[in-house]
Amino acid sequence: MKITLFHLQNSRSQRILWLLEEIGCDYDVINASDIDKHKQNLPTDIMPLKFPTIHIQYECDSFYMTETSAICEFLSRKFQILYLATPNDVDLANFCFWKNYADANLMQLLVLRQVFKQIVVTTPLLFKPVPFLFKVLFNKIYLNKAFDQQLKYIDSHLKDNMWMCGNTFTIADILMWFPLDAALSSINTVQHPFIEKYLNQIQVRKKFSQAMLKGNWSKEQFRKYWSK
Question: Among candidates 108, 133, 107, 102, which has minimal Cα distance to 120?
Fold first, then answer.
């Protein structure tokens, strides 16, 4: 089996690159800047290309996959790694919840905040005060409270758990890392000490560091993009 990851720097595809490093399998990476060189070999039904996309090739067959959560679950099951082999009910419930929560809940708030931010940035200067005021009010009335509620919930969970699923590192942690790091880009981490501890223990993982290098990760650019 040959695995090819289509990767965009500082995007959610970094999680797939990290997962592939944790698995320890062979894989190829095609960066977004090189996509034009490969367009003639890509099927039209996957264009425009989403990041991440993986291409799985066998001797007589091949297919493409998108959606980070789906890719993580497929690779985890395929290689029998980073999942719960014989979980108790609590750990299994946490696994099912957090691996879906990352993109279905927390990531949606981040995207919403980014949409309003980009509207302000791209609006002509003369009209900029209108979307800016709307963004400020929306953040104050809804978004900031929603972030605060969710981060407090996650911090409370991590107070009693080393990883999202108790003491076992799984794909749920790989999926949760990106939105948590993004969410804390403009928030005082002192308010969420257990999330900060959790992110620190992720960053010292050898495979995580290797994936950051291979993905050309820029923490400075990432934090700047996801800040308020």
Answer: 133
Which positions ≥6 away from 114 have C-beta within 8 Å? Answer: 225, 226
Q: Which sign, positive or negative, has the C-alpha torsion 115, 45, 56, 72? A: positive
Which string of DSSP letters, residue by residue, matches 168-218?
Answer: B--HHHHHHHHHHHHHGGGS-GGG-HHHHHHHHHHHT-HHHHHHHHHTT--
89-226 matches 2-79 in CATH topology: no
pLDDT truncated to tens, each residue of the chain (228 aa)? 999 999 999 999 999 999 999 999 999 999 999 998 988 888 888 889 999 999 999 999 999 999 999 999 999 999 999 998 888 999 999 999 999 999 999 999 999 999 988 999 899 988 888 889 988 999 899 999 999 999 999 999 999 999 999 999 999 999 999 999 999 887 777 889 999 999 999 999 999 999 999 999 999 999 989 987
CATH number for the domain running over 89-226: 1.20.1050.10
Domain spanning 2-79 has what CATH number?
Answer: 3.40.30.10
- DSSP single-letter state for residue 140: I
Q: Which residue has the tokens 């990760």?
A: 217
Torsion-angle region of residue 215: left (phi > 0), alpha (psi -120 to 50) or beta?
alpha
Among 180, 10, 2, 49, CA closest to 107: 180
Residue 110: name the closest of 157, 200, 8, 178 by CA: 178
Domain boundaries along the sequence of the chain: 2-79, 89-226
